[in-house]
Amino acid sequence: MKIGFFELEQWEKDYLADKMSALGEVAMIDSILTAENLPTENDFEIISVFVNSIIDARVLDHLPNLKLVVTRSTGFDHIDLDLCKSRGVAVANVPSYGEDTVAEYTFALLLNLSRKVHLSFDRIRETGSFSLDGLRGFDLKGKTLGVIGTGRIGRNVIEIATGFNMNVIAYDPKPNAEYAAKMNYQYLELNDVLAQADIVTLHVPYTEASHHLIDAESFQRMKKGVYFLNTARGPLVDTMALVGALRSGQVAGAGLDVLEEEGVIKDELNVLTSGKLEGHDLKAVLADHLLVDMPNVIVTPHNAFNTWEALKRILDTSADNIKNFVAGSLSNLVN
């Protein structure tokens, strides 16, 4: 079979070389795969991509022999699943690789916010001042953490929160009562979690139904002075609403590893100069810039997954997904 890997670093190519050597012809390509960045080769039967590649109709049209897309991520909103299914193209993901990794990063953001580490660092680096003015933070012990989504990552966040002696309340459409009893937390309706939490953190997948799960009304339901974390997906949050809540003081601070329209932010110059703005929410792009400039907001570049251990788990599972498919069995299918 002809297999194509996209968005690879050199160490990833080296790591995958032995794993893929017996499966046929394998091309390892540095660049992303999008309609604007199609490969010269179009006879791939299997492709593996990361989250910056967009698998849509134009890409599928370019790859008529395609039978399997393996995304090296848990999320798959960058792939048109319905279209793939209609064309007989299977899609597989990596359902579990970063439950500890992303949970740890969530608390890295929270601790930076709660103790104003980023402001302290910037003050000394930029001005040389060791003044403590404006740097007073707060303890996590005794605070109520509202966890939205109690899948693998959400449950690890709960375990870390327990270690900090925090109180935990949670929302999930499919509550895990056994785990809640074990970890001594309570499931509530979403609005009740928002109303009672001192800190709200998102750990849900992005789907059409969860678009702007947190909107202006959601922020108004929260306690005044709440802290907000998102290491899941940017479009879960109405960005303009978040900016408004931060400006009014309804939200005291935010830690964001993902942004709505982060794809435009990452490659803004190219998007603007190409004139290809259709399908993008320019208000959200503007709001992203406003968030980046706010002193009580920490924005990081979708980095929560990014550890050596997690990346190797991603590559191992992706390789296994391909090996199983070639052998006639299917693993980790999402469509």
Explain what this protein looks like in three dimensions:
The chain folds into two domains: 2-93 and 309-326, NAD(P)-binding Rossmann-like Domain (Rossmann fold), CATH 3.40.50.720; 99-295, NAD(P)-binding Rossmann-like Domain (Rossmann fold), CATH 3.40.50. It contains 14 helices and twelve strands. Helix 9 (216-221) links the parallel strand 9 (199-202) and strand 10 (226-230). The radius of gyration is 21 Å and the shape is globular. The chain has helices at residues 10-20, 57-62, 81-86, 99-114, 117-127, 152-163, 177-183, 190-196, 216-221, 239-248, 262-266, 268-274, 282-293, 308-326; strands spanning 2-5, 25-28, 46-49, 68-71, 90-92, 144-148, 167-171, 186-187, 199-202, 226-230, 251-256, 297-299. The protein has 335 residues and is α/β, with parallel strands linked by helices. The two termini are 21 Å apart. The model has no long low-confidence stretch (mean pLDDT 93). Helices cover 40% and strands 15% of the residues.
Topology:
Layout: E1 2-5, H1 10-20, E2 25-28, E3 46-49, H2 57-62, E4 68-71, H3 81-86, E5 90-92, H4 99-114, H5 117-127, E6 144-148, H6 152-163, E7 167-171, H7 177-183, E8 186-187, H8 190-196, E9 199-202, H9 216-221, E10 226-230, H10 239-248, E11 251-256, H11 262-266, H12 268-274, H13 282-293, E12 297-299, H14 308-326
Parallel strand pairs: 1-2, 1-3, 3-4, 4-5, 6-7, 6-9, 7-8, 9-10, 10-11, 11-12
Helix pairs in contact: 1-14, 4-6
